[in-house]
Specification:
This protein is α/β, with parallel strands linked by helices and 271 residues long. It folds into 2 domains: 158 residues, Rossmann fold, CATH 3.40.50; 93 residues, Orthogonal Bundle (ProC C-terminal domain-like fold). 53% of the residues lie in helices and 13% in strands. It contains 12 helices and 8 strands. The chain has an 8-stranded mixed sheet, sandwiched between helices. Strand 1, helix 1 and strand 2 form a beta-alpha-beta unit. 31% of the residues are buried.
Length: 271
């Protein structure tokens, strides 16, 4: 489905490069069909050497020759490059944005192009374990939807939603979600060091515990509360620990953080 298409990645930072690497690693696209743009010459050289793809600093030239144009620049960079791209996306081509806060209408108006997909991936995409939520304008036909799904599936799991409002929610929940996980892991490791473990041992214990717990939750088919109850004996250590966490308001703190991310995403969407 993708092998005959030409791709342009406008911006190849962490997430843009993760998409490029995923497509190449799974042999969905040949390197010669990919071009990535970057302002710095050293970054262009790095991408070309690492992935064997073409690079340029000319966003418009890359766009005009592509069947799929992936916008992966930083949110603050988009207003700077958008004016030069009006009319650059060819009829029949697909524009895909992974830029937080950039709405579908922003691309339709700025590009003068109607077939636009907006996606919110997350950083585990770098190891093909990401979660991407995406939506599309009505002008995106069935073939282009299959193309978008195949591209995003190269990053891990993908989930289509039919209303753009869910993209802001996904940004707060799954897009920003790895940061919450890393903070919790960091706190658990620090506690392990405080207990007396070396940091290396504490990291091993915590990372494998979290890894195994997530896999168990995904494969068991049981409700999370049921799984929690399975390891919580009356009057035991888990019960004592959970009581302390609940007394500290862990659920409220987590929810407050997610809502803060959601509000910030909405602010970005409004410019």
């Amino acid at each position: 489905m993708l092998s005959d298409l030409n791709f342009a990645f406008l911006g190849a930072g962490t997430m843009g490069e993760a998409m490029i690497a995923g497509l190449l690693r799974q042999r969905l696209v040949a390197p010669e069909r990919l071009v990535a743009t970057a302002r710095r010459a050293e970054r262009r050289a790095e991408l070309a050497e690492r992935h064997g793809i073409r690079t340029t600093d000319d966003n418009r030239a890359a766009t005009e020759s592509a069947d799929v144009v992936v916008f992966a620049v930083k949110p603050q960079t988009l207003p700077k490059i958008m004016p030069s791209l009006a009319g650059a996306v060819r009829p029949g081509s697909l524009a895909v944005s992974i830029i937080a806060g950039a709405t579908l209408s922003t691309f339709q108006a700025g590009l003068g192009h109607e077939a636009v997909v907006r996606a919110i991936p997350n950083t585990p995409a770098q190891i093909d374990e990401g979660m991407t939520v995406w939506t599309a304008t009505p002008a995106v036909d069935e073939r282009q939807r299959r193309t978008a799904a195949a591209i995003l599936a190269a990053l891990g799991r993908e989930h289509f939603v039919d209303d753009e409002k869910y993209l802001d929610m996904a940004t707060a929940l799954s897009g920003t979600g790895p940061a919450y996980c890393f903070l919790l892991l960091e706190a658990m490791i620090d506690a392990g060091v405080h207990l007396g473990f070396s940091r290396r041992v504490a990291e091993e214990l915590v990372l494998q515990t979290m890894h195994g717990s997530v896999l168990f939750a995904m494969q068991s088919g049981k409700h999370l509360a049921e799984l929690r109850n399975m390891v919580t004996s009356p009057g035991g250590t888990s019960a004592e620990a959970l009581h302390a966490l609940e007394r500290g308001g862990i659920r409220t703190v987590v929810a407050d953080g997610i809502w803060a991310a959601y509000r910030r995403t909405q602010e970005l969407s409004k410019g």
